[in-house]
Design goal:
This protein is mainly α. The protein folds into 2 domains: 197 residues, MFS general substrate transporter like domains (Growth Hormone, Chain: A, Up-down Bundle); 209 residues, MFS general substrate transporter like domains (Growth Hormone, Chain: A, Up-down Bundle). The protein contains 14 helices and no strands. Its main location: membrane.
Length: 417
């Protein structure tokens, strides 16, 4: 398929091709490090809960500092912030390598690096997202986001596979060193971009209260608030499939670790398929978002009825594909239908919702699976997501009928939906 086709149209742009290639290298390294960190923590502690705590350490700064990062992204030039954040991540990966090679017997230094990495992501992540929006014209941004989902899924599969091959030879420290080097691929890609081909976003003026202004914008923009609330429910009760797939494999399906691995592979394939499906769409509208949300919520509620590993895996495939479409549509509409000078803070808000979803949903679905069984957890989560989707659709329909004179940012997001 040519680069001129609708599915790959973002790749027509020189700067985005560099960005996509660097992103693939960086994500591959990141997932190599994820496997290495999880295995190192598990080796030191023998506790899966300790592995979960390292994930919390990485997510917590986004909840606390995300809007600070968004305010910085809206005010500062994106390019230097991206380079500084990549250098910081490389330094932290090198620090992890030093910790691993030193043969530490304490998990505390690893938690400290995880927390520091979370802070860097919280402060630099919005600038990364804003910069990603500047390497393509606005019309091609949804397509670039969808291709980014494919790259993320491909990098995850490649990174985990390479880590599994290299780990016996290099140890965890070797994986961390490889990841440190991948951040320089991003820096090189940014350095080789053509400044004349950037599609620069208007910057916000430096003024006090930028964070309050960002929060006020979200809270006073009804359609955005509804979309983020729906994303929170879908992401928490309808997206933490690593929990429910593990519970189903160990419980009703009696498939064990092998079954869980198969389901994880099927889910990854579904995310790649979802990326291609999303990239082929000429426009990611609110209506499409709601249709996809309803479909995957219904499938989730029904997936708890599946009698075998094969049928459950069959349900996971379209759910994973639909989840990518929903996530990309949420990000695309949130960014494109918000003012340029507010873009970083909106990206931060979307990231904060994602972090909260992972933290809240994993615990909630885990408790439901333990207390009532994984099938009941899937039913309950699916029904809750169906109700949230219907409520969101009704609310957005009411907002769309409001007179244009109402002081809300609504029409750009809903017209032609």
């Amino acid at each position: 398929m040519s680069l001129d086709s609708s599915t790959f149209r973002a790749l027509r742009h020189h700067n985005y091709r560099l960005w996509a290639g660097a992103d693939l290298v960086s994500i591959t390294g990141t997932w190599m490090q994820v496997l290495g960190v999880n295995w190192l923590v598990l080796t030191l502690t023998g506790s899966a809960a300790s592995v979960g705590l390292s994930l919390v350490m990485q997510a917590l700064p986004t909840l606390l500092l995300g809007m600070w990062g968004g305010a910085l992204a809206d005010r500062l030039p994106s390019r230097p912030v991206v380079i500084v954040s990549q250098l910081a991540h490389a330094a932290l990966a090198a620090a992890l390598a030093a910790i691993a090679f030193a043969g530490t017997e304490s998990v505390l230094p690893i938690y400290a690096v995880a927390l520091a990495g979370g802070v860097v992501s919280a402060l630099g992540g919005p600038a990364l997202g804003r910069f990603g929006a500047e390497v393509v014209p606005p019309a091609d941004l949804p397509n670039a986001m969808a291709l980014g989902s494919i790259i993320n899924s491909g990098g995850r599969i490649l990174g985990m596979s390479l880590a599994g091959v290299l780990l016996p030879f290099t140890g965890q420290g070797g994986l961390f060193l490889v990841n440190a080097l991948t951040f320089f691929a991003v820096i090189a890609g940014v350095a080789l971009m053509r400044p004349a081909e950037f599609h620069r976003l208007a910057a916000a003026e430096r003024q006090p209260g930028a964070i309050r202004e960002g929060l006020r914008y979200v809270l006073r923009t009804p359609w955005l608030l509804v979309v983020l609330a729906l994303s929170l429910v879908l992401g928490s009760l309808g997206r933490n499939y690593q929990v429910t797939m593990a519970a189903m494999s160990a419980g009703p399906l009696a498939a064990g670790a092998g079954g869980y691995g198969l389901l994880s592979t099927v889910f990854a394939i579904g995310t790649v398929a979802g990326g291609f499906l999303t990239a082929s769409r000429p426009r990611l509208s609110i209506r499409l978002l709601l249709i996809a949300a309803f479909a995957i919520s219904l499938l989730q509620a029904l997936s708890g009825l599946m009698p075998s590993l094969a049928t459950f895996a069959g349900a996971m495939l379209p759910i994973a594909a639909g989840a990518i479409l929903v996530d990309t549509a949420v990000s695309a509409r949130a960014q494109l239908d918000s003012p340029d000078a507010m873009r970083g803070r909106v990206i931060a808000a979307v990231g904060m919702v994602g972090a909260a979803s992972g933290a809240l949903g994993g615990a909630a679905l885990g408790w439901l699976s333990d207390a009532f069984g994984p099938r009941a957890a899937l039913h309950t989560g699916g029904v809750a997501c169906l109700a949230a989707t219907l409520l969101a659709a009704l609310t957005l329909a009411r907002l769309a009928r409001r007179p244009v004179s109402r002081p809300i940012t609504l029409r750009p997001a809903l017209e032609n939906a």
